Amino acid sequence: MILEKVIRNSGCAVVKGCGHIDVSSVCADSRKVSEGALFVAVKGFATDGHEYISAVIGKGARVIVYEDEAALQRQTAGIGTEGIALVKAESSRHALAIIAANFYDNPSEKLTLVGITGTNGKTTTVTLLHRMFTAMGYSCGLLSTIANYVGTRGTEAVNTTSDPLTINSLLAEMVETGCEYCFMEVSSIGVEQERVAGLKFKAGIFSNLTHDHLDYHKTFAEYLRCKKLFFDTLPADAYAITNIDDRNGLVMVQNTKAEVVTYSLRSIADHTCRVMEQSFEGMLLKIDGTEAWSTLIGLHNAYNLLAIYTTAVVLGAEPEEVLVAMSTLKPAPGRLENIRGPRDISVIIDYAHTPDALENVLKTLREIAPDRELICLFGCGGDRDRTKRPEMAAIAQKLADRIIVTSDNSRTEKTSDIMSDIKAGMDLSGRARSLFIEDREEAIRTAIMIAGQGATILLAGKGHETYQIIGKEKRHFDEKEIVKGIFETM
Fold it and tell me: Are 339 and 347 in contact (CB under 8 A)?
């Protein structure tokens, strides 16, 4: 593709060279640059792409997109730039997103792209949407925390919201293979870093907003602003689908140009739901006056199911067809997965890693089995938001009979320091009901050994993850394997 088309509407201007240069590839990673590439120098948090300009020129890059003039001059001093186009950007980060979309021929405009943002429920909602629309006969793509799918072909995901080049490359594959829909998670960090700039969304969904990512955003107000920005930028022909039971549900859509559609379990809304009954096997819902069964459990999943029902109906599906398809859906991996064991013990594996998510899951387990002993095992990630650690401890103390505090992905923090932060959220009665065991596998074994007849054990925080990050090492760690192995020896 020629350079002029690649940089169209990106806020860039060619300051040296020819706009008719043919661009063979687009890169923001200097290690991936090859002959004929366009390199976008982005200022990141760990590295600055401007510091690699001379290196990528040496590797054959023909176009350099930059925002820092002084850095460009330093990098090109003493080397030839003959035949190389220099392109000045107002913001390299924004330019990268638009350039990526242009280079892949704006694939988001050629399918129905649905994005969901919120603190909790994103992965479950997009996964269920992907499965439901597939069950209804459509070819669909999925971009999520767990995996990216082009039709039925899946690959492991790295980030909740990938970089613009990865997103547009996958969307282009979806278009090429005949996908009609794509459902993707949109994180607040992804919005703030403009990873979704240049994408054409047909619908945006808001789930909820609670405490998370304050290590990055610093304040809750900034976290909210980044979530809201997603809806502020939706086009007029899109739908803004929002949960009005969340206190920020209407805040999210107050400046959107899109058509607002509301859903609720407690208020008058465009689409409503009531939980009629539930057990470990599933729950009976009444959605817009019609009863439907789901194998998912918990009030939070009632919200997730209502969100996918609302989305499908808004996009033109028949309500009856949607309810039938919904009844066949299974939970997303690592979301309230139930493993039954000896002594009628139920081990529930869930990704809950925020205060709100932990509270939702514990309340659900209490409601379903109020007379069962409830043991909560959890930890908190290292190098992440420290302020939620004592909050999660207080929630576990309030809702669980016994607590085991252990490691999660400790990263470069000491597990003992993280556990001390958690312990600070408990009073004396909470500490008296708690065990503190750094080794997570040992902690799981202990939880099962101390569990009484018919107990419920929640393993919170890891969910679908099959690894632990200790220091900078990623180690295999699959809770389902561990639990089943322990049960086999009992």
Answer: yes
Closest residue by Cα to residue 418 from 342, 361, 353, 359: 353
**Using CA atoms, how far apart are residues 46 and 383, in angstroms rounded to an integer?**
14
Count helices and strands in the chain by DSSP H and E runs: 18, 24
Query: What are the distances in angstroms from CA 272 to CA 243, 263, 314?
Result: 10, 6, 14
| Distance separating alpha carbons of residues 193 and 190, to the nearest angstrom | 5
Render pLDDT for 27-71 as a digit per residue (tens, 0 to 9). 999 999 999 999 999 998 789 999 999 999 999 999 999 999 999
pLDDT in tens, 420-431: 999 999 999 999
Q: Which residue range(s) make up the domain with 88?
A: 3-102
**Residue that terminates a domain, selected from 326, 356, 385:** 326
H helix or E strand, kind and range, residue 473: strand 473-476
- Element at 71 (helix H, strand E): helix 69-76
Which one, of 101, 117, 113, 15, lies nearest residue 65 by Cα?
15
**Is residue 157 very low, low, confident or very high in pLDDT (cuts 50, 70, 90)?**
confident
Same-domain check for residues 94 and 162: no
Q: Which two tokens stand for residue 90?
A: 């107002």
Q: What is the pTM assigned to this prediction? A: 0.85
For residues 39 and 7, the answer to whether their CB atoms sit within 8 Å is no
More confident residue, 462 or 192: 462
Please identify, among 102, 119, 147, the residue that sits at the C-terminal boundary of a domain.
102
pLDDT tens string 259-299: 999 999 999 999 999 999 999 889 999 999 999 999 999 99
Q: For residue 332, is it within any domain? A: no
Buried b (16+ CB within 10 A) or exposed e, 7-17: beebebebeeb
Q: Which residues of 433-451 are buried (b: 16+ CB within 10 A; e: fewer)?
A: bbbbbbebbebbbbbbeeb
Q: What's the gap between Cα 272 and its chain centre? A: 25
Instruction: For residue range 102-111, list pLDDT tens digits in order.
Output: 999 999 999 9
SS3 of the chain: helix, strand, coil, percent, to 5: 35, 25, 40
SS3 state of residue 375: strand
Same domain, 364 and 269: no
For the chain, what percent of residues have pLDDT higher than 90? 85
Q: Specify whether the CB–CB gap between 329 and 344 falls below 8 A.
A: no
CB 214 within 8 A of CB 224: no
386 in a structural domain: yes
- 266 and 122 share a domain? yes
